[in-house]
Amino acid sequence: LNVHIPEGGRMSPEACRDSYTRAIRFVEQCFPDKPFKAFACESWLLDARFRELLPQDSNIVRFQDDYYLLPVLADENQTLERVFGFGTKLTDLPSLAARTSLQKVVRDHFASGGKIHNFGGILVKEDAGR
User: Fold this and answer.
1) Distance from C-alpha of 74 to C-alpha of 46, rounded to nearest angstrom
2) Using an 8 Å Cβ cutoff, are 60 and 11 in contact?
3) pLDDT per residue over 18-48, tens digit each?
4) DSSP letters of 11-62?
């Protein structure tokens, strides 16, 4: 199953586990002839660089802990749009105000020449409740 990450959510581990559990139940009840083995996700939130940029107990890092990660060829556009708003480009960085701690981390990381790209992740169904 493809995982959608809604904008603006806090993504606590408890909320994520609840979502996985409800998705498993839904698919088993409504599509018993379509079993699945894993959840799949592709997002800038899965970029392993966040393990160095954010506290280990941040919801982003804890979300990553659920997945087996793999890099995906992508640029920074999705990251900039999700963190700062649609249409934000690298050239906008010097004038961007950081209103959240995530915005500050991302802005400073990009300003120092760092990158944040999409990563893909697989969460095996049997591990979704742990």
Assistant:
1) 12
2) yes
3) 999 999 999 999 999 999 999 999 999 999 9
4) --HHHHHHHHHHHHHHHHHH-TTS---EEEEEEGGG-TTHHHHS-TTSHHHH
CA 22 to chain centre: 19
Whole-model pTM: value is 0.89
CB 121 within 8 Å of CB 42? yes
Question: Can you read off the two tokens belonging to residue 56?
Answer: 């280990």
Give the tokens for residue 104. 């500050």
Kindly give, in sequence order, each residue whose CB lies less than 8 Å from that of residue 42, ignoring residues fewer than 6 positions away.
72, 118, 119, 120, 121
- Token pair of 77, please? 């556009």
Alpha-carbon gap, residue 18 to 44, rounded angstroms: 22
Reference 108, options 46, 41, 53; nearest CA is: 53
| Burial of 80 per CB tally in 10 Å (0-12, 13-18, 19+) | buried
Residue with tokens 């991302």: 106
